[in-house]
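Quick one, T. Sequence first:
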Amino acid sequence: MNPQTTGSENLAVRGVSDTARWVAYFRAQETQRPDALFRDPFALRLAGDHGFHLANTLADGNKHEWAWVARTYLFDQFIARAIQDGADLVLNLAAGLDARPYRMNLPSALQWVEVDLPDIVAYKEEVLRNEKPRCRLNRVALDLSDGPARRKLFAELGACASKVVVASEGLLIYFASEEVASLAQDLSAEKNFRNWIIDLASPGQLRLMQRTTGKQLSEAGAAFKFGPAEGPNFFAPYGWDPKEVQGLLKTAAQFQRAPAELLSLLPEPKGKFGNYPWTGVCLLTRR
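Structure tokens:
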């Protein structure tokens, strides 16, 4: 990637949607590797110059590429397994610049619904306007903090599918605990929403992130907020039980992506993570 310098405004995070460009940059970097864990031929275009600048100018912006790659890989695996188990609709909340409907091996009859803010939906549709998804794809421009609007959407989708898997990659960390609880309740209210795939940070990891890159994101209105002490069990009172939990560092180490200086943190502790700097991907099942 050879970005052009287009002004100082390209060196800053302008809002939460910019983080999608940042993540797309790391997917593009992984795609170029001969041993890539996934291949996203659309990531380079989706990231654009601004995604490159974010990764290379934010404090520690390029330091944790291994974590973004591990997260993408784990979401791929969990989504693919849910589809193999009969999911007939994937609901991707805060879909960002994810290109899974275009790059994954998917049944043509599968329904895939992406939800995100209007600006990111418009940008994505412009970049991918000449590409053909591998399944039945629809996009919805919606602010997920609007409770009545999202409940209306969930009810509509729950009525047109029998086994829905929800994915919310990179979303919950920007919500306060009570907002996450409300979203969890709204999702579990739909009987056909069977599984929910989330990423999660421990309280220790949240504080670490808030002290580093999180400072600049907070100034742009994209503050890191959610890292529950209960871990995946936070969701149990709201109708969701953890079925499988995979740590990002453990996954990255498995595929020789983890930095050597972090390997001393393995193996991961069992139970509550507390001050331990942990991030992972969790598969939740509806009761």
